[in-house]
């Protein structure tokens, strides 16, 4: 279950990641902001080396480092790990929301991402308008989006509020519509983060069934979740991340079992870090 090497990419590979890393500057002062007085003081202090050392210290923090893997076409690929392991950072890199600090990822096919509730939605636009906006972002023509409109609305169950600005939606309505858009606009690759943790049980089952049918149709699904049972049942393979590094990649049942074994008795994580790009 070791991470794959960096050999040639075969024709059936949808995603090939090699040596991905994301570095942040982490502030040790525990604050994510500075007052105007502090900013001016720092600016005045910079010309004087003896005084410069009094400012808050910072150092590099690697959210992910040397992450390599391949996802095959039509595969449901799970990513698991404790809080702070780099899962969401990795998905943001794969979704091109943030660039990697090192390494590269290659894709074969159109990518749709669902990373958090309402990602990519404009709050002032209606549900209908956001469907067409998201389709345009994916590079689809208006006719293609209109062809899928009825299926999206039926799946999301927000038809009564389709022409209401989404800023008035509940979080459940947001995620139902967001998932419906991402799943029905025919992406070759669907990337989803914790979609199984939001919404009621009936909606979660609909999501599972939709992702399974997408894989059966030859589409690729990358899914992050803390729901070990769902990953073990839904995914073909799972990658276990910890402290930003790949611990193992392999059959879903084996990797989820290894993750559960590691988490038993694991110490609690430390305080939240303050990240500075």
Name the features.
Rossmann fold; alpha/beta; four-stranded antiparallel sheet; disordered N terminus; 277 residues
What would your notes on this structure say?
- It contains nine helices and ten strands.
- It has 277 residues and is an alpha/beta fold.
- The protein has one domain (72-269): 3-Layer(aba) Sandwich (Rossmann fold), CATH 3.40.50.
- The strands form two sheets. Strands 5-6-7-3-8-9 form a six-stranded mixed beta sheet, with helices on both faces.
- Helix 4 packs parallel to helix 6 and helix 8 packs antiparallel against helix 9 (252-263).
- The two termini are 33 Å apart.
- Mean pLDDT is 80; it is low at 1-7, 50-54 and 268-277.
Rg computed from alpha carbons, rounded to a whole number of angstroms: 21 Å
**Judging by the overall fold, what is the CATH architecture?**
3-Layer(aba) Sandwich
User: Strands of the biggest beta sheet: in what spatial order?
Assistant: 5-6-7-3-8-9
Share of residues in helices: 25-40%
| Structural classification | alpha/beta
Number of strands: 10
Dominant shape: globular
Sheet of most strands: 6 strands, mixed
Q: Low-confidence stretches at least 5 residues in length (pLDDT < 50)?
A: 1-7, 50-54, 268-277
How many distinct domains? 1
- How do the SSEs run, as a string of H and E? EHHEEHEEHHHEHEHEEHE
Strand content: 25-35%
CATH homologous superfamily (4th level) name: P-loop containing nucleotide triphosphate hydrolases
Task: Give the integer mean of the pLDDT values.
Answer: 80
Quickly count the helices. Answer: 9
**Head-to-tail CA distance between termini:** 33 Å
As for the CATH topology, it is: Rossmann fold
């Amino acid at each position: 279950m070791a991470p794959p090497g960096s050999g040639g990419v075969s024709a059936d590979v949808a995603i090939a990641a090699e040596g991905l890393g994301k570095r942040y500057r982490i502030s040790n002062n525990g604050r994510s902001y500075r007052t105007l007085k502090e900013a001016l003081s720092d600016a005045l202090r910079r010309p004087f080396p003896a005084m410069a050392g009094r400012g808050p210290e910072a150092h590099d923090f690697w959210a992910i480092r040397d992450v390599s893997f391949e996802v095959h076409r039509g595969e449901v690929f799970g990513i698991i790990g404790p809080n702070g392991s780099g899962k969401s950072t990795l998905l943001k890199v794969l979704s091109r929301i943030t660039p990697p600090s090192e390494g590269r990822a290659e894709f074969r096919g159109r990518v749709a991402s669902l990373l958090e509730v309402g990602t990519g939605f404009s709050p002032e636009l209606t549900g209908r308008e956001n469907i067409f906006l998201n389709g345009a972002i994916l590079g689809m023509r208006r006719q293609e989006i209109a062809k899928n409109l009825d299926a999206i609305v039926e799946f999301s169950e927000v038809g009564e509020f389709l022409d209401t600005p989404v800023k008035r939606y509940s979080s459940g309505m947001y995620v139902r519509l967001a998932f419906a858009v991402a799943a029905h606009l025919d992406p070759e690759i669907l990337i989803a983060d914790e979609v199984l943790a939001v919404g009621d049980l009936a909606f979660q089952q609909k999501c599972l069934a939709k992702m399974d049918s997408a894989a059966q149709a030859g589409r690729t699904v990358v899914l992050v979740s803390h729901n070990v049972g769902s990953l073990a049942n839904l995914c073909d393979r799972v990658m276990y991340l910890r402290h930003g590094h790949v611990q193992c990649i392999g059959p879903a049942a084996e990797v989820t079992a290894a993750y559960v074994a590691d988490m038993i008795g694991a110490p609690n994580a430390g305080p939240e870090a303050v990240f500075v790009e």
